[in-house]
Amino acid sequence: QSQLAQSGGGSVQAGGSLTLSCAASEFTSSIYNMGWFRQVPGKQRTWVSSIWTDGNTGYSDSVKGRFTVSKDNAKKTLYLQMSSLKPEDTGMYYCAADRGPGTTRYWGQGTQVTVSS
Known about the structure:
single chain; mainly beta; four-stranded antiparallel sheet; 11 strands; 0% helix; globular
């Protein structure tokens, strides 16, 4: 059974910062690509950021320059540092792990981020 255990999130005013964590004890970072997705009610889950097995990172245009994805291999934990938060960043954030296109994607339980103006 996959386990991606998320923590962090909460409510913050616009311009503030939050950090999300995702403990991925069963996922070897050299094999699994890790990422973050956001979902708002009534809409599909959308990609936010990824860190791939080669260490490269990627960001959606909406968060580029404000969010930073990282991982601590020793702790097997994925992070998403979010700064200069905007109300449109509000949503349920999910961490994810997969081994590439066409493979099973595992999901964390989700954590709510609410940014007020």
